[in-house]
Design goal:
With 364 residues, this protein is of the alpha/beta class. It has 2 domains: 292 residues, Metal-dependent hydrolases (TIM Barrel, Alpha-Beta Barrel); 51 residues, no CATH class. α7 packs parallel to α8 and α15 packs antiparallel against α16. The chain is globular, with a radius of gyration of 19 Å. 47% of the residues are buried. It binds zinc ion (ZN). The site of zinc ion has 6 residues, from β1. The site of zinc ion (ZN) has 6 residues, from β1.
């Protein structure tokens, strides 16, 4: 198989995305327009180009305060049903245009109630937007399916409420649950009641773990909370030693994660920006892919990281020489790990993903 893939080929290759934040992927133009519409005057600039650079620079500054400020602005303009629906529709359109055929997009309903919306109203507005975006994408010839993950904030105390919301809307656009926010000092075990409730309801959830914090966070997420997937999970590398001969030895936790095929939702650019990895070239994804962990490639925050699924693939192609087989493997991994029913995952793999890669391979 050819090893010189063009960015255009990687854009057309079908991709599956499991870890993307709705408030981390708003179009800069939309942030400006919504701010004007809703009288939000907190933006550092209303120049679209300037704002787009500001987001990237603030996210890349190495300062957590500045990084978090970026989300204050996107969340700040997403406080009405119309604004939420617009952002969700554009999210689906943008992902579809980037060649994403299946996406799970997450957001924290509790962050969108500042103007008096109820939690169910937030979920319904976002669902409406995703359905509209799916329609527009299908009309543009780039069909996509989008499912929502409802996120609870790990420093807050609403996880049980959000978990109940995820179950309430499980047959209406919501495919799972997540917790996010600063890891250090906020162990996932604080939210055990929510995770135990979800398990009793046969519901799916992922937990941000092993990004800013090490192995204990991953261990708790899996062995105490019962997470189906790990958000990032980059630090699992701390439980693997590689000898001078290149031979890898796995500790018990790393072995468990690999044996049980626990999906790792890795986002290379984001991981470098937050310091979870030193560079794309040295990103643990290289070793973990070689050792056949169930690795998936994700965007995390497209606006703040100035990225897309295609860009992540291009960078991995350049850093590790990954070819079409590798990218199909990452994509099938993600699809196998999705929270939609098994038969629907299989249909996407067999009818969309495999033929899509075969078509590009045939281009030679
Ligand atoms: Zn994330």
């Amino acid at each position: 198989m050819t090893n010189s893939l063009t960015p255009e080929q990687l854009r057309r290759a079908p991709k599956a995305l499991l870890h993307d934040h709705l408030d981390g992927g708003v179009r800069p133009q939309t942030v400006v327009e919504l701010a004007l519409e809703h009288g939000y005057d907190g933006l550092p600039t209303t120049d679209v180009e300037g704002l787009s650079h500001w987001f990237f620079d603030a996210a890349n500054s190495g300062s957590l305060e500045r990084y978090l400020e970026t989300f204050a602005h996107t969340v700040g303009v997403m406080q009405t049903p119309a604004a939420l629906a617009r952002v969700a529709a554009e999210c689906a359109e943008d992902l579809a245009a980037d060649g994403v055929v299946y996406a799970e997009v997450r957001y924290a309903p509790e962050l969108h109630v500042e103007s008096g919306l109820t939690l169910p109203a937030v979920v319904e507005a976002v669902n409406e937007g995703f359905r509209e975006g799916e329609k527009r994408a299908a009309a543009a010839g780039t069909p996509i399916r989008v499912g929502a993950l409802l996120t609870a904030m790990r420093h807050a105390a609403r996880s049980m409420e959000i978990a109940e919301l995820a179950v309430r809307y499980r047959d209406d656009g919501v495919v799972g649950f997540d917790i996010a926010g600063a890891e250090a000092g906020h162990p996932p075990t604080r939210h055990l009641d929510a995770f135990e409730y979800l398990q009793r309801e046969n519901a799916h959830f992922t937990i941000h773990a092993g990004e800013g914090f090490g192995l204990p966070s991953i261990w708790q997420a899996i062995q105490w909370c019962g997470a189906d997937r790990l958000g990032h999970g980059v630090r699992i590398i701390d439980d693997i030693t590689v000898g001078a001969d290149g031979e890898a030895t796995l500790g018990r936790l790393a072995a468990y994660v690999r044996d049980k095929r626990i999906p790792l939702e890795m986002a290379p650019t984001s991981n470098v920006m937050t310091g979870a990895a030193t560079s794309i070239e040295e990103h643990p994804i290289g070793l973990l892919r070689r050792l056949h962990f169930r690795v998936t490639v994700n965007t995390d925050n497209r606006l703040m990281s100035g990225t897309s699924m295609t860009r992540e693939f291009v960078q991995l192609h350049e850093a590790f020489g990954y070819d079409l087989d590798d990218f199909r493997w990452f994509t099938v991994n993600a699809m196998k790990s999705a929270f939609i029913p098994f038969d629907e995952r299989l249909a996407l793999i067999d009818d969309v993903i495999k033929p899509g890669y075969a078509a590009i391979a045939a281009e030679g």
